[in-house]
Amino acid sequence: MPASLLMVAATLLLATMGVCVKLANEFYAASEIVMYRGLVGSVMMALLSHRAGIGLKTRLPGMHLWRSISGVTSLCLWFYAIGKLPLATAMTLNYMSSVWMGLFLLGGAVLMGAQRLDWRLMAAVLAGFVGVALILRPTLDQQQLWYGLAGLLSGMIAAMAYLQVSALGRAGEPELRVVFYFSIGGCLAGGMITAVTR
After folding, report:
1. d(CA 130, CA 110)
2. How far apart are CA 174 and CA 156, in angstroms?
3. Do 177 and 56 meet the contact criterion of CB atoms below 8 Å apart?
4. Ranges assigned E (strand) in the chain
């Protein structure tokens, strides 16, 4: 399947997941939805890894742990925001992750002593977010500020998780293994949070 079609399919499935999470929030807590998502994901990734002949044993457990902590935290905040905000607003706030990632990369370049920053990169990222905001027309009223902050934080922490995924890829970890451990993390964290809050 061509990469362009995979990207379209991924975007469609992500939007469908957002709608399903919004509907499920009437009956389940965000942590419980994260747990079920992690359970389904870990089973699917284990089966796909087995079929592809990729072992699940890793030599980088610490990197997977940090990726899971940031990714699952972001996911919990995002699902919480989806349940309390209009769907377009929650999606837009999570899409801020690209802006945060750009800021992290530029900030890292400054800390590493870069003499010159590429302002075109920042302009492109900001223009992309403005485009998303204009299309989705997010709304936020006074009673939703806390939930809006949760959505904004989910985007920021997602950017950290994406950078960690990139680091795992550079370290040679296959995508299926990365997603497997993230799914396991979501299942465990979602289950623990659900058990504590009930």
Report:
1. 25
2. 25
3. yes
4. none
> What six digits make up the tokens of 8?
């379209």
79-118 core/surface letters (b: 16 or more CB in 10 A; e: else)? bbbbbbbbbbbbbbbbbbbbbbbbbebbeeeeeeeeeeee
Instruction: Provide the token pair at 5.
Output: 């079609």
Q: Using CA atoms in the order 139, 141, 146, 152, what is the torsion angle rounded to 10 degrees?
A: 20
Residue 1 C-alpha from the chain's centroid: 24
As a whole number of angstroms, the distance between CA 55 and CA 67 comes to: 19
Amino acid at 60: L
Q: What DSSP character marks residue 197? A: H
Taking the C-alpha atoms of residue 138 and residue 154, their distance in angstroms, rounded to an integer, is 16
Tell me if 121 sits within 8 A of 106, measured CB to CB: yes
Predicted TM-score of the model (pTM): 0.84
Distance in angstroms (rounded) separating the CA atoms of residues 126 and 186: 30
Tokens of 101: 């990632």
Residue 178 pLDDT exceeds 80: yes
How many C-beta atoms surround the C-beta of residue 166 within 10 A? Answer: 11
- Please tell me the distance from the alpha carbon of residue 106 to that of residue 122, in angstroms, as a whole number: 8
pLDDT in tens, 71-111: 999 999 999 999 988 888 888 888 777 777 777 777 777 77
